[in-house]
Amino acid sequence: MSTSPTTSYAAAGVDIAAGERAVELMKSRVARSRRPEVVDDASGFAGLFDASALLRYRRPLLATSTDGVGTKVDLARRLGVYDTVGHDLVGMVLDDLAVCGAEPLFMTDYIACGKVVPERIADIVGGIADACALAGAALVGGETAEHPGLLGPDEFDLAGAGTGVVEADALLGPERVRAGDAVIAMASSGIHSNGYSLVRHILANSDLALESSPAELGGRTLGEELLTPTRIYAKDCLALAATGTVRAFAHITGGGLAANLARSLPATADAVLERGSWTVPPLFTLLGEHGGVPRAELDKTFNLGVGMAAIVAPDAADAALRLLAERGVPSWVLGEIVPGAGNANLA
User: Fold this and answer.
1) Which candidate, 83, 67, 68, places its Cα nearest to that of 227?
2) Measured between alpha carbons, how far is 328 from 313 in angstroms, rounded to an integer?
3) Which of 30, 101, 187, 204 is 20–30 Å from 162 (CA)?
4) 38 and 49 in contact (C-beta within 8 Å)?
5) Which helix (H) or strand (E) covers residue 31, if one does?
6) Contact yes or no for 75/155 (Cβ under 8 A)
7) Mean pLDDT calculated for residue range 286-303
């Protein structure tokens, strides 16, 4: 009878001790995202949030969203920069909640990796926690899973889910939009977290390199520009919504400006957007030129410098621009709402 040599979980590629060290490294940054409603769970199996905080609402609606960062994680891996993709994850999840007027309350994350490197995981989760604090939400829990043999030692992916709350009669959306409303653009910080499969395709098939410093980028490398973290709009949107003049928001993510704005329009109205109202940041034109990407393809893939849009009452546009300027968010009048059939068009 043959005998098998003694084996272990560690021999299979899973390092439990490394995971425990990662948790210790990230604790202080996660704590900075804490809200007073968070309740400690000594076991650590669940995140607890005191729902009695919702009693101040007459009819609270819970809002939830989930998303990931997409193939931007591959560029983070190649460049060895891990703290910015956490911001991207929070932007993708919690800014979606803000679109309906919901205040983000808490978030959880999930990281899958080929090998747990404690410092790397702590950087990723630390970025998530920092961005949660910017959005006003608590990071109440998460999971790191080591998948040796399925993912390479340096490979990883991350996803998250968030929960928010909005008063039922304050819910924003297409049914509030009317002809004559103004469309306000809020500047993006860059590509954010959509279109990176096209970016990677351009990098693989052009003379662009992550280490290069094209003159258009003002001294920054292409890699630095591509890893610029997503702007977090949640608190800015809530401050604007508190004025009572916002009809709807549109988070400009995958699909580009026109397609995402159309999601916030009723079937009786169109958005006419003025292409000449802003200058597209040079990164987008650089990618288009070196990748041979037609303008129409750029339009439907990237945000082109607009990360969030607000549809506001006609007489509220100037006040909205002032409020956003005070909050440090570059903004401008992007267009107007006209009678139509639910389409957004870049003119």
Assistant:
1) 83
2) 22
3) 187
4) yes
5) helix 16-31
6) no
7) 95
For the record, the structure tokens of 12 come out as 């299979």
| Residues whose CB falls within 8 Å of the CB of residue 297, separated by 6 or more in sequence, listed in order | 198
Q: What is the pLDDT of residue 30?
A: 73
Q: Enter the pTM of the model.
A: 0.91
Would you state the structure tokens that stand for residue 85, as one six-digit string? Answer: 């993709």
Q: How far apart are CA 272 and CA 247, in angstroms?
A: 16
Query: Do 330 and 308 form a contact (C-beta atoms < 8 A)?
Result: no
Report yes or no: 247 and 172 within 8 Å, Cβ to Cβ. Answer: yes
- Residue 38 main-chain phi, psi, to 5 deg: -70, 135
What contacts 55, CB < 8 A, 6 or more positions away? none
Average pLDDT, the chain: 93
Q: Return the CA Rg of the chain.
A: 22
Other CB atoms within a 10 A radius of the CB of residue 44 amount to 9
Sorting pLDDT into bands at 50, 70 and 90, what band is 42?
Answer: confident
Full DSSP string of 57-93:
SSSEEEEEEEEE-TTHHHHHHHHT--SHHHHHHHHHH
Which residues are CB-neighbours of 293 under 8 A, at least 6 positions away?
Answer: 198, 202, 287, 301
For 131-169, what is each residue's pLDDT tens digit? 999 999 999 989 999 999 999 999 999 999 999 999 999
Q: What is the DSSP string of 139-160?
A: EEEEEEEE-BTTB-TT-EEEEE
CB contact set of 250 (below 8 Å; sequence gap of 6+): 99, 260, 261, 263, 264, 308, 309, 311
Structure tokens at 146: 């080591």
CA 226: distance to chain centroid?
Answer: 14
Residues 246-285 have pLDDT tens digits of 999 999 999 999 999 999 999 999 999 999 999 999 999 9
